Amino acid sequence: MMALHILFFQLCVCVIAFPIHILALLGLWEPMAKKWMPFLLDRMTNTYNKYMREHKKQLFSNMSDFKGPSGELKVLELGCGTGANFQFYPSGCTVTCVDPNPNFKKYLSKSLAENDHVHFQDFLIAPGEIMPQVASGSMDVVICTLVLCSVDNIEGILAEIRRVLKPGGAYYFLEHVTANPSSWNYFFQIILDPTWKYIGDGCKLTKETWKYLEKANFSQVKLRHIIAPFNWNPVKPHIVGYAVK
Prior knowledge:
The chain is of the alpha/beta class.
């Protein structure tokens, strides 16, 4: 009976979002989404950082501990988007940005101008699963936040992260994940999921991302489950932490 209720509400959401599903079926939605997603995220970043500021400050507080012998901190950010994390990075770090969507570059430049304590190295257009432009063992830190929800091959991206990290380097993550199956939050995640992937550029609401991290062969994983302090949002459940190669 519950399955029928879920199917009914999923269909209701699909009917409301019917034009989106038609455009997706015709192959027209993704090119449009790639263009307006940077514009949308640029406006959402301040709101998200307002609610998550303390969590982000705590997460990135020990980044300087992973500096190389020369004292330089080389950072690679995957799915850098509009540069929402730059303000939390330690002064003097050198950042290489990777994103498969070239439309983010304009907004990235704006964030870099507002955060001159960050030294910009390069912007690479590539998926996180395949980054031949980045040498193995060349990075002290890899950052990847709110990205794995939209990645089909999580094992592949985690393998690439381990490849580019120096021994003893750290991978920092902050991801929304599936809710407790007995909660209303989970009920709404299941209902919204078939349509949400189009609105969120491939984002899936019900991923158990922590399970992939626990199996990714890092020497240690420091991971916490938190509930983001949003009033109401299907992405309230998060995991936050870092893993060491």
